[in-house]
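From the pipeline queue, job 12 of 40. The input is one protein chain; the requested action is below.

Action: predict structure.
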Amino acid sequence: MLIVNADDLGWDKAATDSTLSCYAKNRITSTSAMVFMEDSERAAELALAAGIDVGLHINLCERFTARTVPARLRELHDRICRFMKASKYALLLYHPFLRGHFSYVFAAQQAEFQRLYGREPSHLDGHQHKHLASNMLIQRILPSGTKVRRSFSFEAGEKGFVNRFYRTQVDRCLARRHRLTDYFFSLPQHVTPDRFGRVINLAKGANVELMTHPLLRREYDFLMSDEYRQAV
């Protein structure tokens, strides 16, 4: 099975409209919505009307842009954002003094999603994959039993041994409590015929998630192309 998930629904009007345009043409199968962003309210209304499968795109690194965000939430979220942007290795580091911050900020985003969509998210993933931050994993913040996005899938030789070993350990940790796909890829790295063909072939016998951002012109054009439609 091939899951083509569009990230960033609700980020802004352009992100929402490009995503729903792809869904209307059967080019994606699901989307992940951001909450407390400038287009989150409108995005929820349109997504519910379209009937698209929507998950929560957990935001731990970009400032909330909605006009009305509780002051306490904005303060704690900003602290997390500063930590996550302080170093490219922040994802790997556990911050004991932000334990409560991570729990609070996730719970607030989950509650806001429920308010906007009237239900629990169908799946969980994260903006820039920050849902896999050490605080999120060690504290077991993501609800058990939920569908959660795994680490990127690479073949031997595509990344260094340490990189692949770390990703394997993260996926094993996730698999103990959550439901994962068998593979996870990003569309920009798989737009060439040979690499996209590999994704399609894997999806014939396994569950494969392909992440896309229709807001980006190159990805939107590929999704709307005849080549993509015929392959899928």
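Job complete. The first strand starts at residue 2 and ends at 9.
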